[in-house]
Amino acid sequence: MDRRCAHHAERPAHALCMTCRKALCQECAATWEGIHYCASCLVKQRRAARRGLAVGGWLLLAIAILTLAWLHARMLVWAGVLLAG
Ligand SMILES: [Zn+2]
Ligand SMILES: [Zn+2]
Q1: Alpha carbon of 81 to ligand 2 centroid (Å)
Q2: Please, how many CA atoms are within 13 Å of residue 77, restricted to the half-sphere of its CB?
Q3: Ligand 2 geometric centre to CA of 3 (Å)
Q4: Is 71 inside any structural domain?
Q5: Per the domain annotation, does 9 fall within a domain?
Q6: Residue 76 has pLDDT above 80, yes or no
Q7: Overall domain count for the chain
Q8: Residue 60 neighbours by CB distance under 10 Å
Q9: What residues have their beta carbon closer than 5 A to ion ligand 2?
Q10: Is 10 contained in some domain?
């Protein structure tokens, strides 16, 4: 295997980008979570991961709000029982 870096023709390939299968030299290869990516694919990958985190965050927030609303409703019921009793 005598592949050359896609960006540096004089350098031997050190890794392949997992996404676009581009040959990368040591300098061009970016490793993220143990997987090699080229710079542009790494940016896309990170953006996608951040979007996933944001969705998870909103979901947690929604669950927290629903839980609080439920607790609040329970408290109102208890308060109503206490006042009635
Ligand atoms: Zn790539
Ligand atoms: Zn390179």
Answers
A1: 73
A2: 6
A3: 11
A4: yes
A5: no
A6: yes
A7: 1
A8: 10
A9: 5, 7-8, 25, 28
A10: no
The token pair that represents 10 in the structure block? 């004089």
Question: Which has the higher per-residue pLDDT, 55 or 17?
Answer: 17
From the CA of 21, the nearest ligand is: 1
Distance in Å, CA 27 to ligand 2 centroid: 6
pTM of the predicted model over 0.85 = no
Q: What is the pLDDT of residues 20-35, one digit of tens each?
A: 999 999 999 999 889 9
- Host domain of residue 45: 15-84
* 6 occurs within a structural domain: no
Which residues have C-beta within 8 Å of that of residue 53, sequence separation ≥ 6? none
Structure token pair of residue 40:
């542009």
Q: How far is the CA of 56 from the centre of ligand 1 (A)?
A: 26
Helix, strand or coil for residue 31?
A: strand
Q: Which ligand is nearest to the CA of 45?
A: 1
